[in-house]
């Protein structure tokens, strides 16, 4: 089912594998003369009988030695098939009787050819011809090597005489040759084994990856729908509690769920889809279509707009429906942390997907998220974690996201919260004391000494480190596959 160009590429790859020491056995349908010349050995079978077994290049002289001369400028395989099958297309076509007689005669010729060639193989005449053919080829190669050595000696003596006559010209020629070699080496080092540069590889891969995301309407629509629907659900559940001093604990739960939701919506799709792309990536990279860095950079940047747009939509819905402080700087920083959390979670998913197969990635994705959430500072505050386990909280990127969000909402010199027990008379929280002082609430979560810019820098470091580790794993897997 391949066209001529694809078939040539496929056979060329098989030829390279064979030259590397592997044995390749294959059947091919109507090969062109160019493809036929690429095969080393030919084993021809007709009607269950071997008609030829030897080098592919010797089939034409062997047929000629048996009385079956291939016409000039005729594909040997076509002639072989037509003669054996009794299809002589050069016979003129007359009336129906002549046509039937011609067909019968061609079939008889084909049967005679099959019998003659099969008998030659069985009796050893084919093997004897192959031995003579190989010795003749070896003699021709030896004679050609002697002629080449003589020609090289003659040219070297003449060039020596010319250099003695004009040493300056010889030096100039040598300089020009060395410059040409240096430029050739530079070109090879720039492009490596690939037929095009890294920039062009990145451009094509970026467009392809972006279009594949756009065309995967089911996943893209599900991602958009989930961010909008869950944002509306959280907005209705925590409606206008952002400035209520009696519901600060509920508001903290709302903020933590935002980080939790953004983490899983970025982590799990990547964990599920990236391992399935690895087989395609490895096959195309091992064919020297593009480099690892071009693929990885295109993969990272193509999905970046979606990892920014979806968290912004979700964060905007939740921020205004829950009545968080109506200040542009707080709103902007809140969205920034949401986007950064999503990017770090996606990086973690890429790392898992690159290092494992699909079955393992499905298991490791949720399992590795448990300690990340457990040491985030919401379920257990940092001050109550045992000393020998506190170091684990520094490995949780959700901790820095949650800490930064608490500072954005309740820090930055925020005014005291409203306390209106009558509005919450039907709530159990009306029995709790009103936490009107935001600083007191930050101390409760051990976030009073946190710095927003420090948390942002740490999240950026998580992003860079995880992406770097993923790139190194991809490089390792490609080398192992090669």
Automatic annotation (TrEMBL):
Q: Where is the ABC-2 type transporter transmembrane domain?
A: 201-410
Q: Name one GO molecular function term.
A: ABC-type transporter activity
Pfam families named among the record's database cross-references: ABC2_membrane
**Membrane topology recorded in Swiss-Prot or TrEMBL:** Multi-pass membrane protein
Q: Which residues form a coiled coil?
A: none
Q: Which residues cross the membrane?
A: 224-241, 253-274, 294-320, 332-355, 361-382, 452-474
- Compositional bias (Low complexity) at which positions? 154-164, 172-183
Positions of the UniProt region annotated as Disordered: 154-192
Q: Which keywords does this chain's UniProt record carry?
A: Membrane, Transmembrane, Transmembrane helix, Transport
User: Where found in the cell?
Assistant: Membrane
Entry GO terms, CC: plasma membrane
Q: What is this protein called?
A: ABC2_membrane domain-containing protein
The organism is: Macrostomum lignano
């Amino acid at each position: 089912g391949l066209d001529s160009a694809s078939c040539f590429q496929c056979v060329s790859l098989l030829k390279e594998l064979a030259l590397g020491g592997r044995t390749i056995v294959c059947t091919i349908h109507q090969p062109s003369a160019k493809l036929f010349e690429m095969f080393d050995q030919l084993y021809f079978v007709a009607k269950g009988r071997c008609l030829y077994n030897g080098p592919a290049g010797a089939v034409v002289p062997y047929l000629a030695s048996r009385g079956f001369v291939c016409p000039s400028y005729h594909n040997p395989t076509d002639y072989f098939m037509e003669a054996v099958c009794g299809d002589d297309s050069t016979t003129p076509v007359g009336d129906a009787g002549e046509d039937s007689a011609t067909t019968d005669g061609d079939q008889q010729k084909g049967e005679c050819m099959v019998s003659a060639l099969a008998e030659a193989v069985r009796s050893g005449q084919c093997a004897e011809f192959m031995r003579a053919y190989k010795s003749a080829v070896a003699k021709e190669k030896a004679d050609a090597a002697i002629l080449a050595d003589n020609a090289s000696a003659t040219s070297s003596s003449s060039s020596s005489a010319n250099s003695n006559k004009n040493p300056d010209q010889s030096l100039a020629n040598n300089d020009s040759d060395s410059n040409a070699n240096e430029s050739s080496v530079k070109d090879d080092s720039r492009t490596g084994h690939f037929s095009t540069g890294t920039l062009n590889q990145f451009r094509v891969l970026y467009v392809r990856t972006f279009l594949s995301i756009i065309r995967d309407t089911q996943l893209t629509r599900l991602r958009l729908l989930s961010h909008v629907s869950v944002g509306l659900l959280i907005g209705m559940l925590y409606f206008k509690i952002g400035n209520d001093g009696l519901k600060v604990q509920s508001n903290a739960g709302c903020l933590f769920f935002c980080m939790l939701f953004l983490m899983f919506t970025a982590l799990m799709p990547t964990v599920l889809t990236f391992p399935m792309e690895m087989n395609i990536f490895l096959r195309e990279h091992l064919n020297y279509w593009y480099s690892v860095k071009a693929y990885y950079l295109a993969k990272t940047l193509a999905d970046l707009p979606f990892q920014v747009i979806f968290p912004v939509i979700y964060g905007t819905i939740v921020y205004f429906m829950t009545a968080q402080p109506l200040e542009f700087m707080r709103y902007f920083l809140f969205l920034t942390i949401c986007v950064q959390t999503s990017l770090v979670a996606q990086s973690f998913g890429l790392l898992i997907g690159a290092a494992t197969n699909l079955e393992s990635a499905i298991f490791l994705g949720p399992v590795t998220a448990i300690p990340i959430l457990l040491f985030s500072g919401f379920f257990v505050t940092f001050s109550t974690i045992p000393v020998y386990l506190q170091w684990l909280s520094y490995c949780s990127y959700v901790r820095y996201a949650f800490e930064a969000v608490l500072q954005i909402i309740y820090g930055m010199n925020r005014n005291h919260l409203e306390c209106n027990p009558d509005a919450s008379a039907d709530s159990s929280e009306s029995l709790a004391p009103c936490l009107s002082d935001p600083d007191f609430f930050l101390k409760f979560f051990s976030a009073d000494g946190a710095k927003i810019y420090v948390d942002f820098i740490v999240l950026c470091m998580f992003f860079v480190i995880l992406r770097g580790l993923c790139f190194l794993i991809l490089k390792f897997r490609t080398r192992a596959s090669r």
